Amino acid sequence: MSPQRRTALVSVGAACLLVAIKLVAGLASSSLGLLAEAAHSGTDLAAALLTFFAVSVAVRPADRGHPYGHGKAQNLAALAEAGFLILVSVGIGVAAILRLAGVVEFEVEPTWWTFAAIALVLLVDGSRTMVSLRGARLYRSDALLANALHFGSDFVGTIAVLAGLTAAALGFPAGDSIAALFVSGLVVAAAFRLGKRNVDALMDRAPEDDARIARQAIARLEPPVELRRIRLRRAGGEHFADVVIGVAPGAAIGQGHAAADRVEQALHAALPGIDVVVHVEPRGGDGGIRERTLAAALTVSHVREIHNLTVLDVDGSIEVSLHLKLPGDLPLDQAHEIAEQVEAAIRRDVREVQTVRTHLEPLKETASGEEVDIDKEAVEAVVRDETGAEPRELRLVRTDDGIVVFLTLGLGATGSLADAHGRAAAIEERVREAVPAIADVVVHTEP
Q: Is the pLDDT at 409 greater than 80, yes or no?
């Protein structure tokens, strides 16, 4: 048996005990307050049985017909409990008013064991309130929280009954009816609050406090994420979030996924246990021409890679050129058609561009190569002359396209990226001059 069901079953046993104690003591002393509490505990028994059933259903895992789980069974049980409480409390209130108005004659005769019974009731009420409240917090259960609030109101109501019986014992019999009326009002108010809370959950009313916490958590992310929409709902103590974020139109799929992961982590930290679904969309046309051009080109299928994207302003006319890498086994006519689709997409999405030129290249997933030691001295001499130090790493690899040089340079940490790029470009140019057979130079700069 699950801990939640065990907690609910304890409530069933306690409700049975309290009904018996209050009913016997109320009949023996003619106390309307105790009889009202007995009726109240009778509804507790029905409510506890409903809670036991609801928790048994709610702990079932999600299935094809209930992808969000069965948590709302707890809200249904709590709503039914609220309805029972209101009906019984209204009946008790009417009876108390009839007694106070003299329509019904009565005589309250409290005895010492009546007060002993009340003391026992207070002990049981206090214990089960704490047990249900602890279970509600531990398992985030709406049904157990409803029980905790209900049992807490029972405890306060029993205190009022005790006061009424004490007044009756001291010669003021109307005190018992006043206590019964107080209990009725107390329970009705609690039932309305309980009903509203669960109606809101069943109607998927957005939990405003939780939504505010979620928005603040996303707003604190660095780098920032554009939050376009967030929808929250609660079911059986669980939170579900549907989030839409905007990323740069030129962002790669991996970058969008990483942004979604950061949103999920932030929401899990702010609202533990939340179930989050994040949808990533490209931002609107507020980026630069390069960013929007790249995003437009990547919307065309089969385009695997784009590089050497250049944007030129020629006599007031914006021209774009770029290299497209497509699968190498693609027929030329299909590759040309894809290039035309890319050009059309750029002109459609980037209105400023008048001319688009594309260069097609085959995409190689891998290329063969072997490391060689030729001409290393010439490359090292260039690096020493430019930086005054040896390269941190130098490798020459022979490929099908020629020799590729991989250089790692240590530069000053205080310089700017533009300065580092300028020095790397100068070294690359000198290496090409020193070793004409080199096909490419890849320079990595470090502080």
A: yes
